[in-house]
Automatic annotation (TrEMBL):
The keyword Iron-sulfur does not apply. Its EC number is 2.7.2.4. PANTHER family: ASPARTATE KINASE, ASPARTOKINASE. GO terms for molecular function: aspartate kinase activity. Keywords: Amino-acid biosynthesis, ATP-binding, Kinase, Nucleotide-binding, Transferase. Transmembrane segments: none annotated. Residues 377-433 form the Aspartokinase ACT domain. This is Aspartokinase. It comes from the Bacteria. SUPFAM superfamilies: ACT-like, Carbamate kinase-like. It is an enzyme of class 2 (transferase). It catalyses: L-aspartate + ATP = 4-phospho-L-aspartate + ADP.
Amino acid sequence: MKVVKFGGTSVGSAQRMKHVANLISQDSTPKIIVLSAVSGTTNSLVAIAESIEKGKPEEALQKIVQLKTSYEVLVSELVSQTATQQKAQAILEEHFGLLEAQAKMVYSDSMQRLIVAQGELLSTKLFMLYLEEAQIAAEWWYAPDFMQIDSFKEPLIPQLRAGVMDKVKASPQHLFITQGFICVNEKGEIDNLKRGGSDYSATLIGAAISAEEVQIWTDIDGMHNNDPRVVENTYPIAELSFDEASELAYFGAKILHPSSIWPVQKFNVPVRLLNTMQPEARGTYISAKTGQEEVKALAAKDGITAIKIKSSRMILAYGFLRKIFEIFENYRTSIDMITTSEVAVSVTIDDNTYIEPILAELQKLGTVEVDYNQTIVCIVGNLVADSKGIVKKVFDSLEDIPVRMISYGGSKNNISLLVDVSQKVKALKQLNKGLFQN
Ligand SMILES: Nc1ncnc2c1ncn2[C@@H]1O[C@H](COP(=O)(O)OP(=O)(O)O)[C@@H](O)[C@H]1O
Ligand SMILES: N[C@@H](CC(=O)OP(=O)(O)O)C(=O)O
């Protein structure tokens, strides 16, 4: 069994959906197909929910009509037989009807999650109709039937394995179509795996059933050595270890959801990143294999807050770090980078939900300084002993860029630098030149 995920751009139009149908039906290997919402849909659904939250139902309804119109165009291009067109129309009525009903109700967080879940339900149902018309046999699965998260938002893998295996065993089909991103939470409400979560859905399913491999099809030919949106002349990396891919995903390489690697790493299921628009390109192969000692790629993660705590006792007493960590632990806020000196500790976090109470408690331990809008620039590769002078190249490349924190040696795969967000693009470009073009 392979688990094959197609992202929003891969199902972004009728033509692309037809292309995907062609790609998945070329051989008889059993496949679980995980689809995202049509590109742009989740953003529109988030905007609809925001209008309802702001108490502007008319604005929400206007946005719903606009989105529905774009789906009517998609349907008219996707299916041609009268019976299938009627079924498609019924699907639009069901899901846009639900949105319209929500717009007239009082906003809640669970309503927001229900609204954003409609994208993947629409894409998978419409895709099924095209398969029906193209006479490609497949079965549709409702992801919340098997994708569950607990009260800490962690996925329940044994339940996932049992749910998926039961469905496979009960079916004569070898193609199964399901939604990425959406799941059910501990209260039985529809929930999601956070933005970009369809990658995570696919790797969770692949890990849970020990799939042969997970394929993630997107609009680029694999993981590039730097962010192609801001740096020119980037290139795809043929192979990455799980550790390298995990660091890149966590530190901002948008092609992969930040949490998507741990499940496949734990269950040793390889992942291929492939380009829907260029299926013959070899893409990136991610596995347990560790490559040569070299820098593989750069990534950057925005929205970082740096917090410096200066001990009021001047010399760090033992137990000081524990007290600091306990505060972050109590607010379930994870720390990305940490540096210490004799008198101070600096940490970074990417989630400011509990920043106020965290700062209030830290202030009891010493003087606290906070810098918002920071970016972690991350250099990833097999950097075991740095026999190639990578650190020197990093410092030479950064020349005139003020660096707020540096972390090296925490993992053999990563050098992290903290810079102000305004320096991000410059840092990525200069490091690209210094590390890959000499
Ligand atoms: N290092 C990187 N390598 C490849 N793509 C990257 C990288 N960093 C950012 N990206 C961006 O990620 C995009 C693909 O991810 P995403 O938009 O989530 O795709 P999908 O909608 O298919 O899930 C690419 O178009 C590219 O602009
Ligand atoms: N549709 C969801 C989930 C997702 O993973 O999308 P994509 O695969 O297009 O990044 C989102 O936009 O967040």
